[in-house]
Amino acid sequence: MNPTSALSAWQLAIMAVVPVAALAAWLTAIFLAARKPRGRAQAAAAFLAGAAAAPETGSAHVVPAPVTGEGEPARTADGGIAA
Q1: What's the gap between Cα 24 and its chain centre?
Q2: Cα(29)–Cα(16) distance, rounded to whole angstroms?
Q3: pLDDT single digits (tens) 3-33
Q4: Which of 18, 19, 29, 48 is deepest in the core (most CB within 10 A)?
Q5: pLDDT tens digit sequence for 49-70
Q6: What is the SS3 assignment for 27-40?
Q7: What is the C-alpha separation between 40 and 56, in angstroms, rounded?
C-alpha cells in the first residue's frame, strides 16, 4: 500500500464495492422489468378449470359467453372479410 495515500484500504474497498453493487441492482431491476409477463389466458384457463371441477365454491367473477354472429360480417378462410 502507498504510505502517502490519504485513504485506507477499507475505504478504497468500499469505494469499489458500492458502484459494483449499484450496477448489479440496476441490471436486476432492468431484467425484472423487461421480463415477458405471464399469460393471463393460461391463468384464466387454470382458474376456470378449477372452478368447473368444484362448482359449489362459486366465484365473484362472471365470465360472459362469447357472442358470435351478431352483426359481424362473414369471414373468408384466409382471414379477410367477405363482401
Answers
A1: 20
A2: 21
A3: 676 888 899 999 999 999 999 999 999 999 9
A4: 48
A5: 665 555 555 556 666 666 665 6
A6: HHHHHHHHCCCCCH
A7: 24
